[in-house]
Fold this sequence. Notes:
The chain is of the alpha+beta class. 33% of the residues lie in helices and 21% in strands. It is built from three helices and two strands; from the N terminus they run αααββ. The radius of gyration is 13 Å and the shape is elongated.
Amino acid sequence: MSAEEQEQAFTKFFRSARSRETAIPGAGLGLPVSKTIVEAHGGSISLDSTPGAGTTATFTIPCADS
């Protein structure tokens, strides 16, 4: 994904140009829903992408107190 696409990736219904070109099915809701869930648990989620090489999604969620 390009830098511009990464900025929009957590927007509802956003789909990258590559996913549209290759007809990969989807509604563009996976990352926004994931972000909502992760943040509801006090965590964070981010993307790191290199065009033509791939994208890595990373999330952190704090440990619960015992």
